[in-house]
């Protein structure tokens, strides 16, 4: 702890700082809990999207044989052109939200390709959309976790450093001021007791 001045002014400054830290700490603790809860919610949403992707992929099993015979046709059939996102606010953190994707579909000759190619485009688009949505959730989690890390550091700083330092400074200053006051009273009594002697000598 830095050396503190043993004065009434410093005592007031330390008392004010202690009140300020004690007022802000519950708000920071609440924010920390809120962020932890939000992260759990984001993780659950990301897992739900992954489960939906697995479900869509499982539907492909019935015609995997057809796809395997036309790998060249399916290569690059659908690609993501752009991902549309919005923004939201979680406990003061700006996060992206998934809206939709724009895709590019490879030019194909409808007469020269199998009938199931349209289904392949639809399913591939759905899988790509789910993958992009999951990545947005991953970015949400990264941003909220970073805010949680900073908030946790501030909570620890207040709980383990700032508040104990203020309390210790207040204790030391009060002892010093008490000692000073006792010494002043003692000096006053000594001076008073010597006063008659000096008057007699005069």
Q: How would you characterize this protein structure?
A:
This protein is an alpha+beta fold. The protein is 73% helix and 13% strand. The chain has helices at residues 8-59, 64-69, 71-74, 117-201, and strands at residues 78-90, 93-105. The protein has a two-stranded antiparallel sheet with strand order 1-2. The model has no long low-confidence stretch (mean pLDDT 86).
Using only CA atoms, what is the Rg?
35 Å
Mean pLDDT over all positions: 86
Assign a percent range to the helix content.
Answer: over 70%
- Proportion in β-strands: 5-15%
What's the tally of helices? 4
Largest sheet: 2 strands, antiparallel
Name the strands of the widest sheet in spatial order: 1-2
Layout of helices and strands, plus pairs?
Layout: H1 8-59, H2 64-69, H3 71-74, E1 78-90, E2 93-105, H4 117-201
Antiparallel strand pairs: 1-2
Helix pairs in contact: 1-4
